[in-house]
Amino acid sequence: MKDAAAPTPPLALEGLRKTYPSPEGPVEVLRGVSLALAPGESLALTGESGSGKSTLLHLAAGLDAADAGEVRIAGRSLTGLRDAGRARLRRDHVGLVFQQFNLAPSLTVASNIAFQARLAGRADRAWTAALVARLGLAGLERRYPEQLSGGQQQRVAIGRALAARPGLVLADEPTGALDEAASDAVLDLLLELAAETGAALLMVTHSPRLAGRLGGRAHLRAGRLE
Ligand SMILES: Nc1ncnc2c1ncn2[C@@H]1O[C@H](COP(=O)(O)OP(=O)(O)OP(=O)(O)O)[C@@H](O)[C@H]1O
């Protein structure tokens, strides 16, 4: 019988399959991947280069569609949703952090952080101000991304991802473009703020050292998780 008290997983993946065409023939990247994240859980996704980590994260975010299997975000299936429906689900429930920061170049630090929360109708001035302070960005609010260091830009990206207090944060090599000291600082903040807001975190990383700092680890090999 189903446990009525079990909370809805912020993310559930079931039997995901993905094959890409290539000049050498179809490449079966994911061959039946399932996982569920509980609220507040953090999981590192590791695997060799080309094992499909980014592919899996993109499917989980609804940025791309699987060939088979199901993705559920906050209990809602992406199956059958069009782009706009998937974007809405992402806007309401997911914070994304990428390796290359992906900030809006024409928006200030403050506007970059507030942007997604505004779109989601959950702008909260006090929380945005707290994020700016916690992320060590006080005094830089009116700067543009190009006027920041890489570590500062990634801290802005973390602020943007958490501003709407999503239940799920998906991060693809969030410290991949940073040196070791900046990586540690950025990961500390990401883990702290995710824990504080109760967000589940799925983070792709090449680094066993960084993976070891998350609550658990899943390794992609030959298209499956182990
Ligand atoms: N759009 C695409 N079209 C064709 N093949 C693709 C596409 N995207 C990824 N691939 C292939 O799928 C496989 C998995 O790629 P993916 O980027 O998911 O791996 P990854 O584990 O994130 O790698 P890395 O650690 O190097 O970033 C690779 O063999 C890649 O060449």
TrEMBL record:
Gene3D superfamilies: P-loop containing nucleotide triphosphate hydrolases (3.40.50.300). This is Putative ABC transport system ATP-binding protein. GO terms for molecular function: ATP binding; ATP hydrolysis activity; transmembrane transporter activity. It comes from the Bacteria. Coiled coil: none annotated. The keyword Disulfide bond does not apply. It comes from Albimonas donghaensis. InterPro entries: AAA+_ATPase (IPR003593), ABC_transporter-like_ATP-bd (IPR003439), ABC_transporter-like_CS (IPR017871), ABC_transpr_LolD-like (IPR015854), MacB-like_ATP-bd (IPR017911), P-loop_NTPase (IPR027417). Keywords: ATP-binding, Nucleotide-binding, Transport. Residues 11-225 form the ABC transporter domain. It holds the Pfam family ABC_tran. SMART domains: AAA. One of its GO terms (cellular component) is plasma membrane.
